[in-house]
Structures are given as C-alpha cells and as structure tokens.
Specification:
Layout (H helix, E strand, L loop, with lengths): L2 H8 L6 H15 L8 H15 L4 H9 L5 H11 L10 H19 L4 E8 L5 H14 L5 E9 L2 H9 L1 E3 H4 L4 H7 E3 H7 L12 E4 L1 H4 L2 E5 L13 E6 L8 H13 L1 E9 L7 E4 L1 E3 L6 E5 L5 E4 L3
Parallel strand pairs: 1-2, 1-7, 2-6, 7-8
Antiparallel strand pairs: 3-5, 4-5, 8-11, 9-12, 10-11
The protein binds S-adenosylmethionine.
The site of S-adenosylmethionine has 22 residues, from helix 7.
C-alpha cells in the first residue's frame, strides 16, 4: 500500500463490532458475499474508499445511504467491485487443464462421435476471461480438427468491470507471461506487432505490448452476469464441462455446498465439474463421482439425482 493510502486509511472512522456484523449481514444478503469474521480491517478499508469518494463521514451514514429507496443498483455495484478479488491467470491450475485435455475432451468426443455436437463449457466466476479463453483454447487445441464438434463457452461473473475486460479479450504482457508459450503463440496476437505491419508505431517495450485472443477463439465465447449465491434467473443450459475455481474464497460452507449442488445439476450426465483443490472440504456429494485425476478436484456427473451434504464445519 502507498504511504498516502496508509495515511488516509488510518483516518478511517472506528467501526464497532455491532456495525461490523450489520455490514457483513447486509453484504451477504444483498450480494451473496461472505466476509469472514476476521476481516474487519479489509471491510473497513473498502467501505472507507467509497465513503471518502462520496464524502460520507461514518459507516452508519453510508449504511443508511446505500439502503435508501432511491439508491439504484449502481452504488451496490461500485461497492461490490471493491470487495471482490478478480485475480486470475490463463491455464491457472495446470493439472486441471492436463486432465481436461488428455482425458476428458477425448472421452467426450469419442462418446459423441459421429453425431454433430456442440460441446458446452461454463467458466463460473470467470473474472477477466482468462479461464474462459483457456477453455476455448483447450478445445481448439485438442478437438479443433474434429469437424463433427463445435464449442460453446460461457463465462459468468458478478463483477461488471471484469466482464467488460473479458469481452475486450486484450491482455497485458504480465497477464500472459506465465501461460504455456504454445497457447500464446498459437491463439493470441501481439497487438504491437500487427500495428507495425500496418505501418503504425512499433512498441519496443515488451511490457507495453498487448495481446489479443484471436477471433477464432473468441467466436464461441459469450460473457454475462451470474451470481452463484443469488441466482435470479437460471437459463443456463446443461453443460459438458464446468470450471469453477478460486471463486469460493469468500463463501460460507453453506453457500459452497449450495453452489456445488447447483453446478452439478447443470451438468449433463457424464459431464465434468472442475473445482480448485481443497474447495470441497467438509462436503459430501452423491450423484457424481470424484475422479482420480492427479492433483485435481473434479466430479463426473452420473445419472442419479445430485445430493450435497455438509459433513464438517
Ligand atoms: C479469484 S477470481 C478467480 C477467477 C478464475 N476462476 C480463476 O480461477 O482464475 C474470483 C472471481 O469470482 C467472482 N465471484 C465472486 N463471488 C461470486 C459469486 N457469488 N458469483 C459469481 N462470481 C463470483 C469474482 O468477481 C472474481 O472474478
């Protein structure tokens, strides 16, 4: 944190335990985000950032302000953007992508053959689109030559800012630096280089170079808002593959269990749900079997009804 930020944070008003609880409950109820008991400093800092902007002197007044009837959704969205963690990366959890590309995709393709089919992928909590485009790249890499198969990839998130970035499909050098070279080289275009071809300025500093996901990979991809904890409309069709990784960080165990159940119910029989390792601790699932993919937490939907139970808090 910069010195200036630290100073202004130090000037933030005191928050009582009672106020903290009130804010946590409100945020859970309105946004479906669970702020843990130990994160008072985090919450104070984020609220104070918004309050300074609005020149509201204390948490109680901001609470009343945000609850006012005439307050439209914009203020809630501003606050939400400050509370979510949108950190992401292409091919972030490599063992999951290894399992997807080496086992799952060939198996699904074989099961569908020779029918013409669209394989459906859902990236839940897609942030700025890195996971969504990674799925599109994985499909093209493994099955792009199979003329009987197409892909449809949907990315959903609660951050409008992240969704806007995702739709642009442009990434900085730092954002693509750690992804496997082969995917960057095959499926992205260095914007500095293509501009140079058209006689425009050449960007010499590689940190300024932007990378754009190629059209072919963007084509099957759509993005939209979807709050996993408050699913208002549920028009997402059944999927072949769902990725939901690093989204449960702020979820209570009850919300995790509900989300896992919702996601499993959105799988076709034989479809796969990839979570992040350790994200289903204390949760027992029936109606889906745990796969043995190395270092990966992945369920395969069976034909039975799905039941999700909390076994340990
Ligand atoms: C840490 S990022 C993970 C991004 C990506 N899945 C990955 O693994 O790299 C978490 C994302 O989940 C989104 N998120 C948080 N709570 C959510 C909810 N209730 N419903 C949907 N998305 C949510 C956040 O906005 C953020 O973009």
């Amino acid at each position: 944190m910069k010195q200036q930020d630290t100073d202004s944070y130090d000037k933030s008003p005191q928050m009582s335990d009672e106020e903290y609880l009130r804010w946590r409950n409100l945020i859970q109820e309105r946004m479906g985000l669970c702020i843990r008991e130990t994160r008072m400093d985090f919450l104070k800092r984020r609220l104070w950032e918004r309050m300074r902007y609005l020149t509201i002197p204390n948490y109680r007044d901001y609470y009343e302000f945000i609850l006012r009837k005439d307050q439209n959704r914009t203020e809630w969205q501003h606050l939400l953007e400050l509370l979510v963690n949108c950190q992401s990366a292409f091919f972030r959890h490599l063992p999951s992508y290894d399992a997807l590309m080496n086992t799952v995709l060939p198996e699904i393709a074989k099961n569908y053959f020779p029918q013409k089919q669209t394989l459906s992928f859902w990236s839940v909590g897609c942030s700025r689109g890195q996971e969504t485009y990674s799925l599109s790249m994985a499909f093209h890499h493994i099955l792009g030559q199979n003329t009987h198969l197409n892909a449809s990839v949907i990315g959903t998130d609660i951050s409008f800012r992240a969704l806007e970035r995702a739709r642009k499909a442009e990434y900085s050098f730092l954002e693509v630096r750690d992804m496997p070279d082969i995917f960057r080289e095959k499926y992205m275009t260095e914007l500095g280089k293509s501009d140079a071809k058209e006689g425009k300025s050449i960007l010499l500093n590689k940190h300024l170079v932007k990378y754009r996901v190629n059209e072919q990979l963007r084509k099957p991809v759509t993005f939209r808002f979807f709050n996993l904890n408050l699913p208002k409309t549920d028009d997402i069709p059944l999927q072949d593959i769902i990725f939901c990784q690093n989204v449960f960080i702020y979820f209570s165990i009850e919300d995790r269990a509900k989300s896992i159940s919702l996601l499993l119910k959105h799988l076709k029989p034989g479809g796969y749900l990839f979570l992040g390792p350790g994200e289903a601790v204390g949760i027992k699932v029936s109606g889906a079997t745990l796969t043995h993919f190395k270092d990966t937490l992945c369920y395969k939907r069976t034909r039975e009804e799905v039941h999700v139970q909390i076994t340990q808090r």
